[in-house]
Amino acid sequence: MVGTSGTTPEDVIAVARADARVELSAAAVDALAAAREVVEALAAKPEPVYGVSTGFGALASRHISPELRVQLQRNIVRSHAAGMGPRVEREVVRALMFLRLKTLASGHTGVRPEVAQTMADVLNAGITPVVHEYGSLGCSGDLAPLSHCALTLMGEGEAEGPDGTVRPAGELLAAHGITPVELHEKEGLALLNGTDGMLGMLVLALADLRNLYLSADITAALSLEALLGSDRVLAPELHAIRPHPGQGASAENMLRVLAGSGLTGRHAGNTGEAPRVQDAYSVRCAPQVNGAGRDTLAYASVVAGRELASAVDNPVVLPDGRVESNGNFHGAPVAYVLDFLAIVAADLGSISERRTDRLLDRNRSHGLPPFLAEDAGVDSGLMIAQYTQAALVSEMKRLAVPASADSIPSSAMQEDHVSMGWSAARKLRTAVTGLARIVAVELYAATRAVELRAAQGLTPAPASLAAIEALRAAGVRGPGPDRFLAPDLAGADAFVREGKLVAAVERVTGPLA
Prior knowledge:
By secondary structure, the chain is mostly helical. The protein has 19 helices and seven strands.
């Protein structure tokens, strides 16, 4: 149900990923109708009102006569649907359409109820406009992406049907009994002028990153265990004296995963080494790094919540009947946290790769075979899995360069400072995909190493054994001679991304923080 308030991240994810049905609430229909009355009253007056009876952007100085206003709104959609490049993912397009509908339903945009209902009908029919990678500067909203969506409402352009086939949008609307809309005053502009694309990608990324941070706590614990590390550094009293909430949560998660382990605290072990006083930073400081990222997620969630509670358009219809121009379409608040998340994701990937490398190096792994190979020299083990992981980490570091630090003026210098928030969101999606693969490689190495320790007569933690059992049940194989490795790595990636690692461990530990 889309109303005048209360949209949650869970709503966005349900519509974007699970095709949840969308309905306009009675309050939303009333708010739409009331705001439309204001716009129509202004349209009847001789004074120019931006977006109602004027051109757009740098062309706003021209007053548009009533007989040209339908053409004006149609033209802004057609001309702004200027995207290029690969298609944007279906879940992103559904998220941005749902979020635009949420703003329309707020009653601050002035569109007719039938325009909002058509957007809901398109979503419910499983019709997904073809949106392209490039075309948004994250200011004046995600203009080209939203324009391609508005074009579908008009029955123009191309869209993907529920069967995955791309067809002319008009054909798809007709096949589902949906009448294309004819846009009236302000409606074309209202469909385009929002931060919905970057916000949708932020909401989706936050959900994915929460799973990956939990997974990273688990893999860090498995690596600590495999390296015969000390779990004393996870003691609550140590983290209480540096009270970052994310750090404390990560340490607690790792401690719960390691409960009952016979491998931790064996610094001397059976390896004949001199006792170690401390573990390497990548092992000992995992809660600090994972936790700092968790705190960043928490801040980004606050920003996402504020944006979900916003009505982003220009001009807006205010409760007192005024229609005012504003700058709320500027994507800076969202762009900054999208970039921030790319930075912490890169660092999480970096520390994960360092632990993997340590597991594979016989000089630092405290008794594990070189590259975790069965017959080192004849077998190369996981040597090149770490190469793949390192390549991913290197790309993550490039993706961590902020997009929001850039700005290219547009629209004849009327729009002379832009956020590049869409670009920040697109590179974050790539970073999230890369991070899942990085964590998966560490999981693959750590589980193999723990199994090798078990073969040495040591007893892993029950949660570790549960993770290993579930991973093997998913078809990802354990120690043995060299084999075609890519399918195992792909299987580990899916196991992490789909939340199966967290689910397997939580069956032993209970819900992790």
